[in-house]
Amino acid sequence: xxxxxxxxxxxxxxxxxxxxxxxxxxxxxxxxxxxxxxxxxxxxxxxxxxxxxxxxxxxxxxxxxxxxxxxxxxx
Length: 75
Fold this sequence. Notes:
Elements: H1 2-5, H2 31-43, H3 48-55, H4 59-68
Helix pairs in contact: 2-3, 3-4
């Protein structure tokens, strides 16, 4: 029994993972970015479905943003 306890233990080496730094133009879209873009696209006369397809977001998200900012887009 003692022999099984004294088996060679596997050493697990851990290396620090390098995380790539995103350049400004490569930053992922955030909800804040989507909001601004949704409002801009609506001002240009685009329909909700067109905006959703162009940004790759759901129609519900587009409609929600437009509903929340209704009236603010007139300025």
